[in-house]
Fold each of these.
Amino acid sequence: MLIPSLVLIGIFVYGFIAWTGFVSFTAWKSMVKNMKLVGFSNYALLFQDFRFQSDMRNTLMFTIMFIAVTMVIGLFLALMVDRKVRGETFFRNVFIFPMALSFIVTGVIWQWILNPTTGVNLILKALGIADVPQWYTSTNIIPRIQLGQIEFGLPVAIIAVAIAAVWQMSGFAMAMYLAGLRGISDDLREAAKVDGAGEWKLIRKVIIPQLRPISMSLIIILAHISLKIFDLIYAMTGPGAMFVTDVPGVYMFETTFRGNNYAQGASISVIMLLMVSLFIVPYLVSSMRKEKM
Amino acid sequence: MTLRRFNRALLYVILAVLAIVYLIPVYVLLVTSVKDLSEVTLDKMWALPSHLDWYGYKEAFRKLIPNLTNSFLLAVPATLLSALLGSMNGYILSKWPFRGSRVLFTCMLFGMFIPYQSILIPLIQFLQSIRLYNSIPGLILVHVAYGLPICTLMFRNFYVGVPPEVLEAAKIDGSGFFGIYRHVIVPLSVTGFVVVAIWQFTSVWNEFLFAVTLTTQKQQPIMVALQNLSGSQIVQWNVQMAGALLAALPTLLIYVSLSRFFIRGLLAGSIKG
């Protein structure tokens, strides 16, 4: 009875990945299918490409920012909500509800909130801040270090996207941490308190180390979401001026389905798959080993 | 003591402020969607409408109703099918392990993490060759196939908790593989089905990449239509926001009424049950 599912996955996951890998070595660059093998030339072209280099920079910066901020806020929210507050369910639900939304809806809303001509900037102006941020329309990169074709650094525009992504995902981190916190025995907390540990010390020395496995899972889950992100950016900003908010997911989509450059699209997606696998494969193997059936 | 009370008050203040911040997008969404066209201007984004105007909703509804229908026709069967297959797989993998089942299971799980861009080109060719490209059944097939890993995982973790004695008892009573599934496992897994169904429905409903690449025009699910709505410059902002709300409503309603199950599904996605 397992067979139909295995066949389905065998074809749809492994078979198709193999075929994509094959396409990435061909010269299929237009509507006309061309299966002539060209070796690694599609990859070589990509790595010299201004847009793809920008994508790599953006993905790196976005991933670091997104994971770090989501985890810190998630932990903070969990610690707050876990203090037996009244209305716990209400607060928990408010922080998690963005998870029920589509990245498209999130993108559509945040596009307006972080639009430099309105939204948050209206409030900032009312507060007397004249030099308001340009959010996702900024082309600034800090610092600008010339590297290959591109200027390396943090593209300011990507911060706006990260804000929307954190808004959507921090509730998930909170839920994970809450589950973890419930698993820390009161004895352990009491023991630490008896030893004279203050609140802050208790969190640093007992709670955070105890939550380590959760943090590891979170890093892996958030990283794989971040590395393959597409919808949110597509709906919110698109590639952006000078590709400041472009990512491989968007590039792959545009080059394949708008430009009919299938070979290039396949190459980008293979690189995306490799990046995701870097995180996922060790995770899967270690959780398989840990479990005894 | 006073310090403690002060801390407590501070805690509530911080929580309240954070809750407000998290709800800001909802405020913008609601307020803008009921504004008169003359009031949807960039400088009055935060202002409340002077009166309720339903033009945004009427227009959004008129434009999006075919796509909302598509999404229901897609998400409901896809959810049912993947839940059914997932539960079967989970049952086998947790209760009838065989040599190599762990490796197979892990290989299966890999499928839920891959970036779907990496299977998209062959997928389109494949769907074209079986004449399911640009059709709702085609999308259902795709969502069932790529939903299998997570559904299997969730059910497997759920069934691991079913004590083996229950199965033994059923075996002694003469129940076989299917008998145990139907009379023991299925009745025990109502919660499991609810959790998986909520999860899968939400994912399928909110999914965009497959929807935008595998369908055109009339077959498009809601998220593609919403994106098209906001992508075109002529469409007014109140219509856009009303549309976003309509698109989000089914999953939001599920969340509001069944948040406990939704959160369980959320946590189940992280492999360890």
Amino acid sequence: MGQTLAEKIIAKAAGRGHVSPGEFVTCAVDLAMMHDSGGPRRVKPVLDRLGAKVWDPGKVVVISDHFVPAVDAMSAAILDLTRKWVAENNIQNFHDMQGICHVVLPERGHLSPGMFVVGGDSHSPTGGAFGCFMFGVGATDMAGVLVTGETWIKVPGTIRINIDGQLAPGVSSKDIMLHLCARIGMGGAGYQVVEFCGSAIEGLPMIERMTLCNMSAELGAQAGLIAADKTTAAYITAAGGNVGDYESWQGDRDANYLDTHLVEASSLAPHVAAPHSPANSAPVGEHSGVVIQQAYIGACTGAKLEDLHMAAAVLNGRKVASGIRLLLAPASTKTTAAAVVDGTMAILTEAGAILLPSGCGACAGYGAGILAEEEVCISSTARNFKGRMGAASSKVYLASPYTVAASAVAGHITDPREFLQKGVS
Amino acid sequence: MTSRAWVFGDDIDTDVLAPGLYMKGPIEVLATHCLEAVDPNFAAAVKLGDVVIGGENFGIGSSREQAVQVLQILGIRTLIAKSFAGIFYRNALNFGVTALTCAEAEKICAGDEITVDAPNGTITNLTKNETYSCDPLPEQLMEMVALGGMVPYLEQRLRKGI
Ligand code: SF4
């Protein structure tokens, strides 16, 4: 019996030839990623209590993104602690205020196919887009990794999601995921691995693949995964990373999959998830006309370079409706720089988008752009849980950057395809 | 010891357990807002040793372990649910909170008096005079949970030099 890609990576990390789903194994960790919220401020007390040191500072990456830039004494203190801890522990890979961890990690060349990676954040499955097995852990689990260099895992099975065909104009991988959230359900993946394959995936740029793996978290998967190909190798090489023998990190043909879901990309419409669950999603038509006060393009899920391109395709030559605020928090400083160079940023700001710092910001309810009681927001983020983006009675609709931008222009939820067909008005 | 049950539905997420608005502040303050979006009374009324019962997918959402810690601060030592979100489940065991998966969790009603035998995987509902079976904790992790979680477990491991 062959093995899935996830099983192969776990077997390597466990120093074994073969592992089977359901087994408990201890794995050596190739890389550990932490941010300012779940990182130093939470692991330091544990390490101090144990009198222990970081097992290998070269295998640790720290990225400040949740509380940046500091807006009050508490967030300033958290960032201060983060910076001091990184210096004291000789962590060379510290990216301070450079963007959201899941985007900065591959951007700086830290990920290679076949790696076993833990991240101190629930959207860590994003790294799976690079052919790594990457999963999210809490701070105590992370402290265990920092002390021992290893962690336990119950070997997950793999659910295959085969996406064939080509996405229609105005439809993106965010729409695929909102569709899957409704179909499989929040947590429907039951802490197994979801591996995306099929002809649609081959045609997707890395950033769109990252969106798929990112929202595997909403399906309740432990990890999302896409086997590396030439597109992956080109991205990693450009980022200064190491592609290694990426062609060998593929699932076997005769591997055992728990389930296979088929998606025909060309038949998908833009989707919108109504409050308060990503699984509450339906084709955009079901929600069109819902009046909004805020539109948010942000987060690791929805403010990467391609995401900004999607918004710009809609906003080019148009204006945000009066009384509506369109907030834009690019996912990383590199994203901002590239969007300035290619002209995207001018299109967005001329349309009326208000530029916010790169970081988690309103997505986590920590930073700028949070909502008042009863306010309605359409957002390119991954989660619309009750109260997440601000007041408990605020309402968040999730959508692609195309749909968020189109809704900002209309002042209510709207199908972006109308704007793309009409061209500039 | 008998415990009083607090019952919540499916998909209780980490933002409801540990709301983002209070994440920067002290954990004791965060705890007073635990579950307030679904039951404003919970944090004030829950007592040491009470048990929280969830439906499917308890703890879905972020990796913040404050979602476990606030429950622990409020006196919860045992969680029972039809299913747990993966990261939350790891976090619970890492804090020495016994998290039990029980297919019959929905038979427990708010206020029922129950006793839990985690090693044998049985839950007795004294109010209804019923017994339910649940998945016992994974054998590999029993020692860690019994010691009070990951930190005491690591302490012991470092002391022994392994
Ligand atoms: S942008 Fe949002 S989803 Fe992404 S890491 Fe930050 S808080 Fe989490």
